[in-house]
Task: structure prediction
Amino acid sequence: MAGKSTSWVVVALLVLMASLMIGPAREDSATVDETTFLSAGYSYWTGNRFYLVPDHSPLGQMLPAMPLLVMNVRLSESAKALIEGRAGYPWAVRWKGEPAALTQLYPQGRNDWYFVSTPESQILGQMLVYDGTNDGDAMMLAGRLVQILVTLGVGLIIFLWVRRVSSNNLAALLGLGLWVFNPHALAYGHLIITDPEGALGIVAALYTFALLLEKPTVRMAAICGAMTGLALLLKYTSMMLVPMYLVLGLIYRQNLRHAPVKWGKLLLIAAGALWATVLLAYFPHWSPPPPISQAQAQLLGVPGWLPAFRPLLIPGEFFKVLALKLAQSSWGHDGYLMGEWSTRGWWYYFPLAFTVKSPAAFLVLVGVAVVLALKRFQSMRPLELVPWVGAALYLGVSMTSRVNVGVRHLLPIIALLCIGIACAARYASKDMYRKVIYTLFGWQAVAAVWAYPLYIPYYSELVGGAQNGYKYLVDSNYDWGQDAKRLKKFLDARGIQHIYLDYFGTQYSIEYLKIPNTRVGPEEARQIKQGVLVVSVSELVRPGWEWLRETRQPIARVADTLFVYQFP
Result:
């Protein structure tokens, strides 16, 4: 395929992907975390320190908030008080452990640097977007358009990576197409969350590392270091790059042994570029963490290494995010898997989530590509091997985490697998094998287009599709509060004037849409004599709603995620 025509195909595929995401970007209501990230990013741009959402990298929050700088954003007095720390919530979050009363965790008064402002940031986000002061829909769409561009950027790197491996433009287009028509990318690539940035940063950093292995120059070492630093600033799961680099270094240790002095110099340059990138992002906040007593650190669950090495940890805010992430990962998070609840997680959560949430065609393609790649393992270039090693290690590390809430965390793996499949497709020696590969790609593309615009609750044909998805996973895998606008249309179409509601999402968005409702829990719902009850399935699968699941059938389901019941 000629170079000029290939460029047009690339543009067409990226435009098509954008089109598949713009619809959901308009129609989806704010999911659980989006308003939080948007407001935090905006507060950082307007000069406030990295106080809100301290357990996430700042740049990943600031990117989608950029359009707000040219919009007429207004802050209510309540929102200003939250940003400035003049208002707060009566309970506080520990770095590691259960939340507790604010007065219990901070008996001598709140230490703002060690304070985890999770409730405050959530309330601020809901106020900023949906308290009626601003055009909430316009703000959300603006932020989501940035995220779409980020997701398209991942696709472009996939194309460039595969084309760098081979002059076969068809293979490069296959890699891009697998990303364009991947329900994972379409579901989360348009949301104001840090996962698209995480995929962009990790894939870009691994690409530059693979290039460094193939062509070890000072320039490439500096680029690789800077890109790794940027990845950390976009999302802190990029810490997984460290074990990836180490394993890849072991695989190609012979190359390193032939020129140890040269490689030592290149590694120092890469490390310096990495740290310069981090320092630049945190300028002028280069102070270390403030002192904290041992008793207070133990009460809050602050990891011991942070106070111990405090004077050396510059910039302090960078290491605060790192410490919080490590603490939360080891502590866990309330998660659901196939009818069970746990705060400690399951080692097989992410492999299972990947399986049930991926198109069957994509799973078969991964299997075929692995077989093809293993046959050429000994002769594979770094650019060919890095995506497989990166994906395998990312999955392996993820399986040790106790935070099991969403397949969205695997977006970097999805992108790396698209690269691996496309590179391995070149090894298909017979026309029949190549036809099978491209037929599977076509099957995946049809499945993705068919699911439009409901990509978040997408599930594989192997488990019965979206209708049955909640039986396996919920939360951001299925029902993340994205269907409030669809609920509004459903109620208006049927002339329903009032509902009882248990909604897994932003209540402010319900009020913003002017949906007359009475919030109820499972016990209050038992008292309903007459009326319509709507329950988000992420709430419905909890033990308290067992009586409803066993005694009644819904009269309707809104976008699969909202179950509607009629009383009596």
